[in-house]
Structures are given as C-alpha cells and as structure tokens.
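FORM 12-B: Structure-to-Sequence Request
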C-alpha cells in the first residue's frame, strides 16, 4: 500500500475508534492527542493493541497501556449490606482501578507505555485522591432484586454493572461513567437532570 493511502487508512481507523463510543473522546477531557507526550495519538495513553498489561490473575485489562495506580485507598464503608462480598481492607479493582490510575492525584497522566512520567502531570482538577469515603461506593456488588430502595438489575440501563475477577454485577466507576463519551458532561452515561441517572438504580 502506498504511503499516502496508508496514512489515509490510518486516519480513518483512528476516527472510527475515537467515535465508536457515543460522541467519541475527540475534544473531551480524555483527548490528549494535542499533547507532545501523547505522540499525537488519541487511544495510546490508555490502550495499546499489543503487549497490553495484565491483571493479577493474568487476564488482559482492556488492552491497557497506562501505568496502574499503586496507591492505597480508604474505601467507603457506610452500608454493611453492600459490603458482604468485600473484605474490609479490599482495594479498588477492575475498571475502577484503571480510572483511578489517572484520577488518584498521584499517578501522572503521561505515565503510559512503560515510558518516563512527569511528576507535574497529575489530573489535579479531577483528582479524587485516595480517600474515597465521600464518593459513591465502588467495588461493591449491586443489591439483590427485591431489596427495598433499589431497582431490579434488568431495568438499570444505561447504568452498567461490571464483571471482573470472577465477580459479577459490580458497581464500579464505569457503571455511571463512559470514559469514551462526554455527551452528557462529566462522562456520564446519561443526562442526570433531576437526578435521572441516580434514579436508574435508586428508588428514592
């Protein structure tokens, strides 16, 4: 394939990948393609097609390319019922750990591909820090159907329950947030006017 045709093909692939989820990440807070350290790539700071990182159990992590947080988090512990399948000292896992690998306030945004990172490249404006007690619980299993105050699992869409590490129906960061689309602001999965997103799961 001639160079010009290959470049055009590569651009088309990049555009398709960037718009495959909702409105795509182009122009959003997750679009780092204009940064020198991103090598002009949209997907590369988070994903890589080859040599992706693996989770503790050896499974691939959505072709993950970014450094994974090593921080220790203080987890939400308000509801005993929601913590039945989680040890008191368990740390974030699955998709939430990947999100926190930029939003922990300690892992640099440009830390990807095993390359050097810049200590000043923290997501300070969107940092959650390591104390998650004042945030919506993550790393929990959605309550069983029929429990007062919660909607049946079959009716949650577009909220997404996550399965990872042999655990199912987990509430993680990506349950409410779609990192590839910012159509509704804050990378939410739907418009939250009138707490509409919250009411997908909660009866009140």
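FORM 12-B RESPONSE
SEQUENCE OUT:
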């Amino acid at each position: 394939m001639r160079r010009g045709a290959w470049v055009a093909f590569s651009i088309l692939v990049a555009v398709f990948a960037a718009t495959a989820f909702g409105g795509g990440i182009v122009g959003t807070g997750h679009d780092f393609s204009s940064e020198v350290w991103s090598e002009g790539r949209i997907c590369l700071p988070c994903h890589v097609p080859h040599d992706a990182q693996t989770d503790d159990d050896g499974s691939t992590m959505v072709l993950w390319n970014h450094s994974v947080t090593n921080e220790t988090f203080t987890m939400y512990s308000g509801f005993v019922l929601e913590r039945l399948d989680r040890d008191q000292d368990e740390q974030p896992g699955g998709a939430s750990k990947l999100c926190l690998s930029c939003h922990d306030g300690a892992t640099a945004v440009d830390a990807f591909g095993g390359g050097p990172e810049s200590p000043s490249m923290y997501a300070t404006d969107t940092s959650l820090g390591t104390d998650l007690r004042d945030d919506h619980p993550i790393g929990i299993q959605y309550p069983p159907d029929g429990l007062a105050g919660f909607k049946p699992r079959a009716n949650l869409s577009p909220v997404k329950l996550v399965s990872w590490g042999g655990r199912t129906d987990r509430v993680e960061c990506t349950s409410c947030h779609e990192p590839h689309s910012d159509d509704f602001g804050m990378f939410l999965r739907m418009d939250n006017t009138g707490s509409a997103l919250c009411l997908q799961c909660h009866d009140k």
